Amino acid sequence: MPGPIDYSKLRIIPDFDTREWWDGTRQHKYLVRQCKQCGHKWFPPTFPACGKCASMDIGWFATAGKGVLYSYVVVVQPIVGAFVGTVPYVVAIIELDDCKEADGAVTRVAGVLTNDESEVAIGLPCEVVYEETNDPKIVMPRWRISGSAEHSWKFRE
Ligand SMILES: [Zn+2]
Q1: Which of 26, 104, 107, 110 has the most CB within a 10 Å radius?
Q2: What's the CA-to-centroid distance between 16 and ligand 1, angstroms?
């Protein structure tokens, strides 16, 4: 298991575009943006218009926080002080199960896994978990492997 993240060394300041997203994580909801005109979903939430129809009439979609590991990288050199005691850790891209659209569009999010590299493979199911930080206004989503898959694939050295 990776070491803990030292959240006291991160300064997260929700802004106009992200305040509601951080409100969501505090309630253990993983939100993505959703267009109120065509239903398209996307992440991160900072882009203020729909990429499909250009509408700025946008809201939020509360995902179930479940997906499939699409890709990953193992971080061994911490760049930010908060992660000095965390390395090595895995950053994954997760394709959300309930954000697939009829035209094949998918929504992918990135996150730090709670699993070691030895437990990780592309194609495995993941689910979000929430970590309290030293700031009561900030609850951080992380991801963990939640099961097995018939077909999965790992990077080899
Ligand atoms: Zn749209």
Answers
A1: 107
A2: 20
